[in-house]
Amino acid sequence: MLRGEFQLPIHYDLAAVTLMAATGALAGLRKRYDLVGILSLALVSALGGGLLRDGLFLQGGPPAMLGDGRYLVAVIAGGAVATWFGRHLRRLRLPILVLDALALGIYAVVGAQKALDAGLPALSASFVGVVNAVGGGLLRDLLSREEPLMFQPGTFYALAAVVGEAVYLPLVVTLRLEPAQAALWSIAATFATRLLSVALGWRTLAVPDAERRDPDGPPGRPPGAAT
Description:
By secondary structure, the protein is mainly alpha-helical. It has one domain. Helices cover about 65% and strands about 0% of the residues. The protein is built from eight helices and no strands. Helix 1 crosses helix 2, helix 5 runs parallel beside helix 7 and helix 7 runs antiparallel to helix 8.
């Protein structure tokens, strides 16, 4: 039983909340939302992954962010700073990409650590960590009417979080490395994988459409379609 053995300082969690709040605020600026819309996206982006983690999988009482006021302070700080500086930036895609990649790595290890602390096995902890990492970004994209990054072929998003988990869990579970040190390696791996996939054009492939490959139907027309 791994319960209680792997602890990370709370500043990891708060850093991820702040960064994800910033991405939500920047996304709201891109959409030209008003202050309420911007802060709402910041809140959902920052806390969505943690609420999914605590509410669906761990269920160890009220979610951590509801019992500690520092989380809401981090949301407000991240959203306010991003809104202020974002107003002076012409292009917001790069800041969102960098902040999101860093938050992705942090939230992946935080989610995995909390799952291990709750007594889940390593494979389950990896799943919880990935959900924690992508949950806020998924909700942010859905609310801002963007195709979620994790659903788009060609983007290493959830896969980057999986790479981070593949680094973190063996280090803490098998090698018994100090969790804070293992977290740094994992965050770096996730961050590098995400940014390198964009910079170098690493792409996942869409699953081929079976209708388009049907030898019995005419090219470009689904079988049974009206003529």
